[in-house]
Specification:
heterodimer, A: mainly alpha, MetI-like fold, B: alpha+beta, Dipeptide-binding Protein, domain 1, D-Maltodextrin-Binding Protein, domain 2, 4 domains, five-stranded mixed sheet, 20 helices, about 30% helix, about 20% strand
């Protein structure tokens, strides 16, 4: 129990905290806008988001339309990125291909972050045997390679977009939980928590209304980092055939469908999708890193 | 032109009615040279006699001339990893059947041209109705352990496969054809097969087509992997599961020792490393390449592609429920596919068009006068409207992540969209698709709309039976048509080529009308070898007969 806590005026800490956050928020925004890394990352993200939203209406060809008499054509004025094994226009497919990953990855990240935050709050706040039991379970999960766990579950349930969202979200939850728990541990002994307890607030209220707002920065950073990994994991799952289903122009899936013809010299069927995936991950990571720095300052 | 009547009486002498029927059909032009060889070999005409007949008629003789390769050397062969043990009774995949067939021989070899050739049996004859077949065995054939092969070994080997208790992979072929106890010894060099029902194609069932049917010693204990003890041209030196096997030539081989001194098999999980190994000179041949992914081999002067016409195909089944219960809808779906474009675009032309029945052009009994179904969207829309489905419907197409299947699934989706049918794709790994291979536990059998792969067979019998008969165990389409069942029974029993063709034509027409299954194409079997390797004889089953193979 800390001493000197203004017990008679519970509004004090509650009023002080938001004011501090707002001020900090303005500072963070300023720092970010002055960071070239952030601006570059955000530009990449914006570009792909715009593609995901609007590409179907401006791409030169229907990304699904096959043309069996023009398969595996190299890049040309007609087909900027060439055509794939079914004669589909790779340029149109790469642009529209952003759509699936940019729907699934953020959803999976939200699932993972929300679940992980909940677990982290509970283990960090209650401590004791709750922390010990859940903590060990999380360690077991973390000791297994993510992609293997995801594959196992997807094999059992069968691949579909909602399953991928939930599975990737849940395999990320322990990672988020670990970060959140650490943040909660530093907060739970602070005076405002004790004050709330003394006021007679219940555990859920304290966790959600008191502690959570104060540990948002690390959660936001963790969420952005997870988004990068989610893109990577989902692309890998699609590549392995357990993610997005054909005929989606999804990048991971397109790479899987076409990497077999690489040996034949048909590099354009794979290179552009790979570059797109890489650029999106780099974009997300630049944003995540800049956020982390800005929030730390 | 030689004196035909003189030749004719010579050829006819001592021949059975069935054999003379085949000769007559060649003479009257109802069989061409190729069909004559296939049908002749099936009913037991010797190759020497058929060669004489062809020569007498001024037609090209039998056999392709191979440039003579040199003695010695090691043939290094890349192949797909066997999925299980190399066990003659249970092998069920292309990876397993190749090592099996290096060490073991069949009674009959079904060559690349689908002409049956004597192997461990030197001749065979049916009785009047084709219900009993008698095979004469070769003299002086030795197993690798030095023992001489006799009729007892043949009876034991075939009976072992026909015995349901052994769960042999060959049961799918023998079911309803040959039962346990149907194989009997007449004397040391003669074996008789008493069939469950007349079967005009029986020699194919004990040929290399039935890849489990290598002849093993009568006292075989189920330990093939230890010794690979058979009568084949190569003796096993070492075998490491999942890695490879090496062999040396068998000096006592009944047809003389093989040209190559050694044979090394390397197992690969995937096609890409095999292609790279061939291009990099680490292997001399690849058992099978598929067009997708091996494009770099096709225009390469250092590589030879051996292309065999085959009846390997994909079946697109439409289960007899929901919208597919109306045959007009099934016909409409079949009319949306542009088959020539698929053959050209996906297979570089190395496939035959399918006409919605298992009768591939490669089968001698196929009636090639049945009109080919093509793409006709207008007619398809008419059929949909007549079926009250002009608004289309939604359906899920289930298939596997295997070779060109995802591509075909995407093409079907686009094609069906042209008549308003919205197809959602569901792709699974191969294991999940087949499941337990029984209704209720298998997406293959349970899916309403699915694509399944079928490997090459010597006769269409299995394709006609398992996926299409009312009692068929692989009947994903749930096709039940008593008229069809009757036609198939008479096709299977038909002995002479004209009767087989007539039944085949009737079946083709019925299936084209009912369209329970779309057969879009039959793709060629492609083997890649280095340009210097000669004399390789493959089959579209995946066997590679290397007895006469060697380097230039």
């Amino acid at each position: 129990m800390s001493e000197g806590m203004p017990l008679a005026d519970p509004a004090v800490p509650m009023a002080a905290a938001p004011a501090g956050r707002e001020e900090k928020g303005r500072g963070v925004a300023g720092l970010l806008l002055r960071s070239p890394a952030f601006l570059l990352g955000a530009a990449i993200l914006l570009f792909w988001t715009a593609c995901a939203l609007f590409a179907p209406s401006f791409v030169p060809y229907d990304p699904f339309a096959d043309d069996l008499l023009n398969t595996l054509q190299p890049p040309s004025a007609e087909h900027w990125f060439g055509t794939d094994q079914l004669g589909r226009d790779v340029f149109s497919r790469v642009l529209v291909g952003a759509r699936d990953i940019l729907t699934i990855a953020p959803l999976a990240t939200i699932v993972g972050t929300v679940a992980g935050t909940a677990i982290g709050l509970i283990t960090g706040y209650f401590g004791g045997w709750v922390d010990a039991v859940i903590g060990r379970l999380l360690e077991v999960m973390l000791s297994l390679p993510l992609i293997i766990v995801a594959l196992l579950v997807l094999v059992a349930l069968g691949p579909s977009t909602p399953t991928v969202v939930v599975v990737v979200g849940l395999v990320f939850a322990p990672l988020v939980a670990r970060t959140v728990r650490a943040a909660v541990l530093t907060e739970r002994h602070l005076d405002y928590v004790a004050a709330a307890a003394v006021r007679g607030e219940g555990a859920p209220y304290i966790m959600i209304a008191e502690i959570l707002p104060n540990i948002l920065p690390p959660i936001i950073v963790e969420g952005t980092v997870r988004l990068g990994y989610a893109i990577f994991t989902i692309a890998s799952l699609s590549f392995l055939g357990f993610g997005v289903q054909p005929p989606s122009p999804d990048w991971g899936l397109s790479i899987a469908e076409n990497y077999g013809v690489l040996v034949g010299g048909f590099w354009w069927t794979v290179v552009f999708d790979t570059a797109a995936t890489a650029s999106l991950i780099v974009g997300v990571n630049l944003v995540a890193e800049s956020l982390q720095r800005a929030l730390a300052e | 032109m030689p004196d035909r009547s003189k030749c004719l009486s010579q050829w006819r002498e001592g021949r059975t009615e069935l054999e003379n029927e085949v000769i007559d059909q060649l003479l009257t032009g109802r069989l061409d040279r190729r069909s004559f060889l296939r049908h002749g070999s099936r009913v037991g005409l010797s190759l020497a006699l058929m060669g004489g007949v062809l020569q007498g008629l001024g037609l090209a003789p039998i056999g392709r001339a191979f440039a003579q390769a040199k003695q010695g050397g090691t043939i290094r062969l890349a192949q797909i990893t066997p999925s299980g043990a190399i066990e003659p009774v249970s092998v069920a995949d292309q990876g397993g059947l190749l090592p099996l067939q290096q060490a073991g021989d069949f009674l009959v070899m079904d060559g690349p041209d689908l002409v049956l050739r004597p192997m461990l049996a030197t001749s065979w004859k049916p009785n009047e109705d084709g219900s009993v077949w008698t095979f004469t065995l070769r003299d002086g054939v030795k197993f690798h352990d030095g023992r001489v092969m006799t009729a007892d070994d043949v009876v034991a080997s075939i009976d072992r496969l026909a015995d349901p208790a052994n769960g042999s992979n060959a049961l799918s072929a023998f079911k309803g054809v040959l039962s346990k106890g149907g194989t009997t010894k007449v004397d040391d060099k003669t074996v008789r097969f008493s069939l469950d029902a007349p079967n005009g194609n029986f020699p194919y069932y004990v040929s290399s087509d039935n890849y489990n049917a290598i002849i093993l010693p009568a006292d075989y204990k189920g330990d093939f992997e230890k010794t690979f003890n058979g009568t084949g041209p190569f003796r096993m030196v070492s075998y490491t599961p999942k890695v490879g096997a090496s062999f040396v030539r068998n000096p006592d081989y009944w047809a003389g020792p093989a040209l190559a001194e050694k044979l090394e098999l390397s197992f690969y999980a995937d096609q890409q490393p095999q292609v790279l190994a061939l291009l990099g000179g680490q292997v001399d041949m690849i058992q099978q390449v598929v067009v997708q992914g091996s494009q770099s081999l096709f225009d390469n002067p250092a590589v030879k592609i051996l292309r065999l016409k085959s009846n390997a195909h994909r079946q697109i089944h439409m289960k007899n429920t929901g919208p597919f219960a109306d045959k007009r809808v099934r016909q409409a779906m079949a009319l949306t596919l542009d088959r020539p474009a698929i053959v050209k675009g996906l297979f570089r032309g190395m496939a035959d068009l399918g006409n919605d029945s298992p009768f591939a052009p490669v089968f001698p009994s196929t009636d090639t006068t049945i009109p080919q179904r093509g793409k006709d969207i207008a007619k398809a829309k008419e059929l949909m409207a007549a079926a009250g489905m002009s608004g289309g419907f939604d359906v899920t197409l289930t298939t596997m992540q295997l070779q060109e299947l995802p591509a075909i699934a995407s093409l079907i989706r686009n094609a069906a969209a042209e008549i308003g049918v919205k197809v959602t794709l569901k792709l699974e790994d191969v294991g999940a698709y087949y499941g337990d291979a029984v209704p209720g536990k298998s997406d293959w059998l349970d899916s309403q709309f699915g694509i399944t792969d079928y490997g090459h067979r010597g006769t269409p019998n299995v394709f006609l039976a398992a996926p299409l008969l009312s009692t068929g165990t692989w009947n994903s389409a749930e096709f039940k048509n008593p008229g069809y069942d009757k036609l198939v029974a008479s096709y299977i029993a038909a002995l002479d080529p004209a009767a087989q063709k007539a039944q085949a034509g009737a079946i083709q027409k019925l299936l084209l009308d009912e369209t329970p299954i779309i057969f879009p194409y039959f793709y060629d079997y492609l083997t890649a070898t280095s340009a210097t390797l000669q004399g390789v004889e493959g089959t579209a089953m995946g066997q590679m007969f290397l007895h006469k193979a060697g380097f230039a």
